[in-house]
Design brief:
two-stranded antiparallel ribbon; about 375 residues; alpha+beta; Aminopeptidase; 13 helices
């Protein structure tokens, strides 16, 4: 790796190479799915991605002596994160490289030098670009493709990150469930308990009241998740991006809101797994976009990811009511997926320390099948 050059992404050549690194490094992995290239490109563009409303980032790409793109990394400072936690933590992301410890060390050193120049005292990641997007490095569960907004990394990456002086900080867990057989009687009983409450209903997202229902989901998210490790509230730009994404790919019957007396108290957001439609399309460039859309909208997909679920704190504080709402949401999710013909439903990600949510997933019959890891290194 002595002949490897690591260059900042400042021109079209470096930008093109940055996008191509995963496809070059992961070319022999049958479970790798190249993400939608236009979405990755947008994350590099400070003029079009909402992260840059409250943050800054830099990107690097590594070339071998033959000019092949063999590695990449980003470094970013999230001002909302620093303000919320009153610290000087910075983040790295997009990390992937050929199987060589020295390459990873040099990539991480490049990111660390930039973070130190910004006054950062510790490097945490990977995040792409923030905790509200793709988070963590896959360290277990390499034998299946990733779901929407979840990564698929080389098996050697963890070893090389640890060798560069990083330590495990937090694990993010993914559970899988087959909804085709319907819900269990145990879960159904919780749904009945919830619906027996005066004024309780459990309904799908109403696209005719798009702004109102989206606001309800975000209010519950910001309340229910506010004490979670690493939580940062979504910016206005991120909310707008979420709204755009929902309109583009959502199956509204898989987005649920629980209400009591007309007040939203819980929500669950599941999205069709667009990675299933992206498989084999090499990032869906040019004509590949049409094939991707045909697969997604006409053929359809059979897997989904439950990426948000929460119950507001007032109901969580009631040890009888909180679990009933959560279980009722899981039951309704399973039944909605069964009706729509889905065969795989991923619940992710769940913090390894979030025992209540892990118990709910396991109670419903879901199995732990992937682990993503966040790493930390002190820079001073």
């Amino acid at each position: 790796m002595q002949d490897v050059r690591i260059l900042p992404v400042i021109g079209k050549r470096e930008r093109r190479a940055f996008l191509d690194v995963p496809k070059f490094v992961m070319s022999s992995d049958p479970n790798f799915v190249a993400p939608l290239e236009m979405e990755v490109a947008q994350r590099l563009d400070a003029s079009s991605h909402p992260f840059y409303d409250n943050g800054e980032a830099a990107f690097w790409v590594a070339f071998d002596c033959a000019g092949n793109p063999v590695g990449r990394i980003s470094a970013q400072v999230n001002n909302v994160h620093q303000k919320r936690y009153s610290n000087r933590e910075g983040h790295f992301g997009f990390i992937i490289g050929a199987n060589n410890a020295e390459l990873y060390r040099r990539l991480l050193a490049q990111a660390e030098d930039w973070l130190v120049s910004k006054g950062v005292v510790s490097s945490i990641g990977p995040f792409t670009l923030s905790i509200n997007e793709e988070s963590g490095l896959l360290v277990d569960g390499f034998n299946t493709p990733p779901m929407i907004m979840m990564g698929h990394d080389p098996a050697w990456s963890q070893e090389h990150i640890l060798a560069a002086g990083y330590q495990p900080e937090k694990d993010l867990l993914s559970y899988i469930y087959d909804p085709s057989g319907g819900s269990s009687s145990r879960l159904s009983s919780f749904a009945e308990k919830f619906l027996s409450i005066d004024g309780a209903i459990l309904r799908p997202f109403d696209k005719r009241k798009f702004k109102q229902d989206l606001a309800a989901i975000l209010d519950i998210f910001n309340d229910a998740w506010s004490d979670n490790w690493g939580y940062v509230p979504m910016s206005k730009g991120e909310i707008n991006a979420l709204a755009h994404g929902l309109r583009a790919i959502a199956d509204y019957e898989l987005i649920l809101i629980a209400e009591i007396a007309g007040r939203p108290v819980g929500m669950a957001v599941s999205l069709p797994n667009v990675n299933e439609a992206l498989a084999g399309l090499n990032g869906a460039k040019k004509l590949g976009i049409l094939r991707f859309l045909w697969r997604l909208k006409v053929v359809g997909v059979k897997s989904s990811r439950v990426l948000l679920m929460g119950v507001n704190k007032a109901c969580q504080a009631d040890i009888a009511l909180g679990p009933v709402i959560s279980m009722a949401l899981v039951n309704a999710l399973i039944e909605a997926h069964r009706r729509k013909g889905y065969q795989r439903m991923e619940l992710s990600w769940i913090l390894d320390t979030n025992e209540p949510m892990r118990r709910i997933a396991e109670f419903g019959g879901a199995e732990l099948y992937k682990t993503y890891r966040i790493f930390r290194k002190d820079l001073t």
